[in-house]
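A quick aside before the break. I want you to see a complete sequence-to-structure record at least once, exactly as it would be stored in a machine-readable document. Don't worry about memorizing anything.
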Amino acid sequence: MPGDESEHAPMKKLTSAVGIALASLAAGFVVAPGVANAHPHHPPRPLRECATPSVDRLQQWIASGEGATEPATGSLLVPVRGKHRYAAKVNFLNPEWHVVVVWLANQFEAQVDLSRSAGFWLTYSATEDVYLQLRPASHWSGGDKWLTLVPATGGRTVTRFFSFRPDRWTTLPELGAPAYSFASALAEARGFVFVGKTENRLVFRGLRFDGYVPPCL
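That is the input. The structure line, written in tokens, reads:
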């Protein structure tokens, strides 16, 4: 991953018990095409994009090089036909761990205080489940992170609300428990990291936060 080599340590296999626990987190979210769920408000209006390619003003969607992905490294952003917009697309190719990164303030050295945010809306499609890690600036490396399940959509594009309520986030015992609180991670959020160990076709078309607009660089 750009700016840090140590985070590419292999991740351990999930146990079935962990999988069940993660699935239970998603039970409160009902997938529906084009509709935000589990939040009293609709997603905010589309943001004015940056002068360079971006998805909701997020310019850094990166294949880290861990696991066989397409693209293998570099930016995931591709033009959306006929819309003058972009999407972040990546394929996980083998049954092994894969890692893709989103820098929340568009540069690795920056961080964002999300402690007053209710959560975020993700517009995406996925053929298999994937996991989203919240990585703080002070504890960027390693697999021992707070995370939440991003459920498969059967390849359909959906918009889903993910709450920052602590009970919506968990850890993977085999990766270790974070030595910091979820609240502290929110206060110094550097990036979202999507990880998965199955073949998957992922397309991200939107990522908007309650109370936060990324700065264009």
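Two observations worth writing down. DSSP finds two helices and twelve strands in the chain. The chain has one domain: 32-209. We'll return to this after the break.
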